[in-house]
Amino acid sequence: MIPKNVIGAGIDRVDGPLKVTGGAKYAGDVSLDGMVYAVPVTSTIARGNIASMDTSAAVKAPGVRIVMTRENAPPLFKGGNDYDDACQSGEDWMPLQDDEIYYDGQIIGLVVADTLERAIHAADLVETSYQSCRPMVDLTAALKKPDATQPATALGQPLQYERGDVDKALAKSPVRIDRTYTTPVQHHNPLEPHASVAEWSDDGSSLTLHETSQWVVNSRNSIARMLGIDQSKVTVRVLSPFLGGGFGSKGYAWAFSALTAAAARELGCPVKLVLSRRQMYSLNGHRPSTTQAVTLGSDRRGRLKATRHLCGTYTSKVFQYIEPVVLSTQLLYKCSSLRTGFDLARMNTGTPTPMRGPGETPGLFALESAMDELAFATGVDPIDLRRLNYAERDPRTNNRQRWSSKHLNECYDKGAEEFGWKDRPKKPASRRDGRWLIGYGMASATYPAQNTSSSVKVSLTADGRAEIEVASHDLGTGTYTILCQFAANELGLPVSKVSCRLADTFLPPSPCAGGSQTVASVGPAVIAACKNLLTFRKAGMPGEETVTIPGSQPNGFSWQSFGAQFAEVRVDAALGRIRVHRFLGIYDVGQIINEKTARSQVHGGIIQGIGMALMEATAFDPYFGRVMTPNLADYHFPVNADIHGIRVSFIDEPDPHFGPMGARGLGELPLTGAAAAVANAVFNATGIRVRDLPILPDTILAKG
Amino acid sequence: MNPFRYVKATSPADALARMGRNPGARFVAGGTTLLDLMKLGVETPDVLIDINHLGLDGITEDRHGLHIGAHVSNTDLAEHDSVKKKWPVMSQAILAGASTQLRNMATVGGNLLQGNRCGYFRDVAMPCNRRDPGTGCGALGEQPGVEGINRYCAVLGTSPSCIAAHPSDMCVALVAVDAKVKISSPAFDRLERAEDFFRLPGDTPQIQTRLGPDELITGIELPELPAGARSMYLKVRDRTSYAYALTSAAVVLTLDAKGRIDHARVALGGVGSVPWRSHEAENALLSSPPTEEAFRAAAEAAFAGAVPYQYNGFKIALGQDTLVRVLNELVRPGAGERP
Ligand SMILES: Cc1cc2nc3c(=O)[nH]c(=O)nc-3n(C[C@H](O)[C@H](O)[C@H](O)COP(=O)(O)OP(=O)(O)OC[C@H]3O[C@@H](n4cnc5c(N)ncnc54)[C@H](O)[C@@H]3O)c2cc1C
Ligand code: SF4
């Protein structure tokens, strides 16, 4: 029987059984004949120079095959910095080529031994001495340094932006909110550590890499470039069939992968490297901290007259990463006078990189908190305030260009109804249950929709089985399942008759599994290939079809996803304890492909949002610049006991002007705005406005 | 991580004999603290003496109280019927610590010796007097005004050489119920009161307890609580589970016929260099009526000598409020201790 509604149904993950039985092999699980183990030696200072490295004890330690330092490392080259050409490295620099220390935990050596334990031991035996300087790890101070810049754009959008006359409009606004919000450094912390297993063919003509990669095509191109490989002479193959989460940290290529391959080349045998959790706090990116000054001007009824959003954030000393914080402010509300500004400092930290909802996530914490402050100041209900300033058309185009589809008002309505918003305590700190103060809060969510060119191959057998092959990825998000659904739907097959192979550069290329674009990019290619196979299918003949389709071309519409999120918190103010009692998210992301994997994505995003609101933060020692929370006991994110009553609902309306299925993607959306919904609920519960995340018990005490 | 040898001891005497005077040997029980420290390079033993098979895993009860073997797991102790009934503060404290998996492995003896969670102590690249005497205190910092990450550090009992907080939950309850630690040494066996077992850092923060390097903990004894005693443990932390205490309080209390407090033992967690018995709070409570004012006065007395650092000053107010909350809950149960 062919299920009638394959698209949209909550179909179980097709890779589920493999995962729960241990059959899914992750990069770090790969074990090859003659394989040896690499362990990076990392710096313990955050700024300065290496004075000397004594490797004599390490070299003599049992089982050690090689100790690589700047003295004997092969030449390695900067990876690419070209996202559009799928050659995007996390850093613009390679380790082991010079003496300089730019950040704590930087790779300064690589030890390879016949067992992991021996490699770890020998890495400990390397004695390094430094000339160290005081590192810069204070964002406020760093923003005042001469190396801070004002980058003009990010992702092709203007960061330094103005429409109308903000100063004039502000001066004339009877109500003004003028506040500074800060968000801390956060680490992705996927459960699966980053790993690389490298194997060369005997004649050196091919290199196979088992990687933790959200973008195998990029890993191939970037690592080849770091190694100085000419891909027309040497075949590089990258595989990453399963990922235990990435959240962006496995998107750009990192130097440790190239070092693994370089060691394998030197030694003539396969080499495995798995980063330790501590190393994952330095070597694969993080979300940078931000300080954001938001000024809103409105009339007494809450109609926005002016918006100003100025963000300061940072990148490392070895790469210009821009967390595009202010972009969503330019489009979320109708406001004719609006300015955004952006300052980028340089700090002695590991290099930041995209992390789920880069830009929108910290940005909407500030904007949606400020909107809540405006609601309070004007006495307008927070939802009414947002309706009042609803952007019917894209405000960046002088309110001319239409959205491909936008149902944010329905999100507000549906959310208010389901959540029981009308029971919201009208006055802060006015409702309690025993010692627990109760408060409701809400915030909008938004994230752009995008897609990029992808290829795909679909093969059909005479007995009616189909196989999809594409170098796309499943981060745990459900790609395997969803692509099977597309093919099943087009070919009129049950999902069980469709299989899927992913994340191998020998398969047709596809874009980064980032920016919530996988479904929107790869899905259309699968559909196109299947359509071409329909005649074979009807004739009961085998066939195969490889197609490449372009990303969506500008069509006169703005593509954007939206949502509304609601939180009820309970606060024990005397002890600073906060519990998110329930959380509701309503999302407008176009067509839902798989209700179950979509829901699970959103749950994850909301949980991450609760973590961002209440506990997540990486601490650097202010003097030494060393990460002081480099493990999952000291870096807190929610545990089961923190999570209650999450409910999720979709406005399941296909977008008529975005891709063939009208599905805009939803991976990042739920995290944007979630922290603001919680913080706004904390205000409603206690009357305490927290503008600096996370909201820890001491925050409540200090302000209560 | 250093190469090491592993040996299995078969009896307390065998364990002591194998330990001898070897400064490079360590007992390993559940391993949840020790193995972590070995991976971090903080502990580099050359011999691990496994003490999981010494026959120290029983719990027996007599008219003096409860005798608990050193190897009883944290889970088994917390779930023991008598403990839940007669020493609820113990059960609550243990269940407030770590995670189920850790508590299943962790032992009573190991919990007493878990030592320290200071991030500088656990990072061999950072200065720490407790780990490497004389290197300085990373949590206090190198420069005045630029202190280290010391939000979790103590405000009571600190010294200029170390300000780390004692991390254990169970040990706070042990002090509150006046438990004794049973110690075997090559020469003789002895009992130490839990509250005397831990040492203030002073100038020698590396010495954390009165246990000699060649001694073995064989068990603990919980004395019967006074008739009519109520007891409770409350912990405040950064998330609902699986986080160390910012502050905690363990209290054992009885009221006389007139409703006045005639027995009080107060121990505080997360705020002291050691599990902190507060005689000041107890004195303030004795003979008082159980009122909010009396509780507040006791809490203020408990923290009268507190010294805050750059990031942990909040612990003084929070510690007081935690104690007041426990006292209130003990005399008016259910007045709001609902999550
Ligand atoms: C991630 C994490 C979170 C945690 N959270 C908490 C928490 O919230 N609250 C809390 O209280 N605890 C917490 N803990 C600590 C936990 O309670 C301890 O690790 C545990 O109790 C130690 O017991 P063990 O048997 O595993 O000790 P081991 O690791 O085996 O030993 C610890 C030390 O004690 C010595 N030792 C052990 N037994 C004896 C003995 N009988 N005689 C002499 N010496 C002995 C060992 O030589 C070693 O030095 C946490 C631990 C971890 C890893
Ligand atoms: S507080 Fe104690 S444990 Fe922490 S760094 Fe200072 S001396 Fe070491």
TrEMBL record, chain A:
Per its record, what are the GO molecular function terms? Answer: iron ion binding; oxidoreductase activity
In terms of InterPro entries, this protein maps to: Ald_Oxase/Xan_DH_a/b (IPR000674), Ald_Oxase/Xan_DH_a/b_sf (IPR036856), Ald_Oxase/xanthine_DH-like (IPR016208), AldOxase/xan_DH_MoCoBD1 (IPR008274), AldOxase/xan_DH_MoCoBD2 (IPR046867), AldOxase/xan_DH_Mopterin-bd_sf (IPR037165)
- The domain of life for this entry's organism is Bacteria
Q: Tell me which residues make up the Aldehyde oxidase/xanthine dehydrogenase a/b hammerhead domain.
A: 21-134
Pfam families named in the record: Ald_Xan_dh_C, MoCoBD_1, MoCoBD_2
Q: Which keywords are on file for this protein?
A: Molybdenum, Oxidoreductase
Q: List the protein's name.
A: Xanthine dehydrogenase
